[in-house]
Design goal:
Length: 230
């Protein structure tokens, strides 16, 4: 006989447990059960949440589940899949906002990495950002310039430095991710960086660094002395 959520003792029901002891008291399965709201046929929402979590190695891996993967699971329809993905994205944005990079003073390449690993560390495509700074190395803003395979024909200095002039920036930092997880620069990465440096010298805008972001680590052209320190 299958026991439904409402038939469980109050302290085993996610909603009642949250009300009595706070959201921190809930397990991962219970939090997900609240999002799911209902199960299917003879499976409760709590059992369904356990089934979903069993599909990943750790709770953090839920963010890697795609819409297609979720709706392929028994008991997960469009509504439940959208709820799960929206919740994960909201959590990601909240976490990202804690490390808002705008108006902060640049102190290290690691500081830039800590921000962008949340933003693009687990992306399946390459994202190319440029960070624009003033004379005192205060970050004016960052901008996503390109998505897709990064090469010189795509990353054109005109687009990079046009924004620098509009913002009256004195320096820039380039940042992009390698979905493969290999953080070492490719031939194209090196060529792009060298070209941007050359154009930057002519325009009086310093290329301070170029970071390649992975989910767990990064490569800095500055730290590896591929770019001269200012």
């Amino acid at each position: 006989m299958v026991v439904k959520i409402k038939q469980l003792p109050p302290l085993e029901r996610p909603y009642e447990k949250l009300e009595l002891y706070g959201v921190e008291s809930l397990s991962n399965e219970e939090l997900l059960a609240i999002l799911l709201k209902t199960g299917f046929k003879d499976i409760s929402s709590k059992e369904l949440s356990s089934m979903i979590i069993s599909k990943v190695d750790s709770i953090s891996d839920l963010k890697s589940l795609s819409y297609e993967k979720l709706i392929s699971m028994k008991g997960i329809g469009k509504s439940k899949a959208c709820t799960i993905l929206a919740s994960i994205e909201l959590a990601r944005r909240i976490e990202e906002d804690k490390y808002e990079i705008k108006n902060r003073k640049l102190t290290s390449s690691e500081m830039v990495y800590e921000y962008y690993k949340l933003k693009i560390g687990d992306k399946k495509q390459e994202y190319f950002y440029v960070v624009y700074l003033d004379n005192a190395k205060n970050i004016i803003r960052d901008k996503l310039l390109f998505i897709g395979t990064i090469n010189y024909s795509v990353v054109h200095p005109r687009e990079v430095f046009k924004e620098a002039y509009m913002l009256s920036a004195s320096a820039i930092i380039c940042v992009h991710n390698h979905p493969s997880g290999n953080i070492f620069p490719s031939k194209e990465d090196i060529e792009i960086t060298q070209k941007l440096e050359e154009v930057g010298i002519l325009l009086g805008i310093k290329v301070l660094d170029h970071l390649i972001i992975g989910s767990q680590n990064y490569y800095s052209f500055l730290e590896n002395r591929d770019i001269e320190r200012s």
